[in-house]
Amino acid sequence: MLKKAIALATLTLLGSTGVQSADLFKPEDAVKYRQAIYQVFSAQAGVMGGMAQGKIDFDAAEINKRATNLGKIAPMLGDTYFPATRDVKESKLKAAAWSNMEDFQSKGQTFGKALGELIEASSKPGFDLKTARPAIGAVLQGCKGCHDDYRAK
Fold first, then answer.
1. Which domain of life is it from (predicted)?
2. How far apart are CA 125 and CA 48, in angstroms?
3. pTM recorded for the entire structure
4. What is d(CA 2, CA 33) in angstroms, rounded to the nearest whole number?
5. 151 by DSSP, 3-state: which?
6. What are phi and psi of 21, to 5 degrees?
7. What Cα–Cα distance (Å) separates residue 20 from each residue in 9, 82, 83?
């Protein structure tokens, strides 16, 4: 039940920007918070990607743990994207995200769907490297799709 709830919550990733988030966070703090969340994303995805590439020994339970971790924190990103953050110097979000928010949110939802599918698949018996590779690849491709279009290098 928890895994399904996490998967559903993940589908809402960036589904709506924080309406009242500006009342909760100063823009600079929201950007720092966002970047911290993405650091956790990177660490979790790095382990899963390493397993998919054979650089780290495959462990289905560990992939499920890492994917579930991402599923728990992904919805927190919605609080960090509000218009006042667009002018924060430390932000790596390109202006194109603000001018094409529908596509930006769609990419977040694509990532969320892939992550939800990975969480679900990795929780089942028989989840193996052959099954893991495309599922992890879809999650990482979801990250890349947003980075390519909306993250400054």
1. Bacteria
2. 18
3. 0.86
4. 25
5. strand
6. -60, -30
7. 19, 9, 11
**How far, in Å, CA of 33 to CA of 39, rounded?**
10
Place of tokens 């890492």: 66
Tell me the two tokens of residue 56: 């780290």
Residues in the chain: 153
Looking at the DSSP assignment, which residues form a beta bridge with residue 93? Answer: 151
State the residue for tokens 């979801």.
Answer: 142
Q: Distance from CA of residue 15 to its chain's centroid?
A: 12
- The Cα–Cα gap between 55 and 51 comes to 6
List pLDDT tens digits, range 7-37: 544 544 554 444 567 788 899 999 999 999 9
Tokens of 77: 């990103």
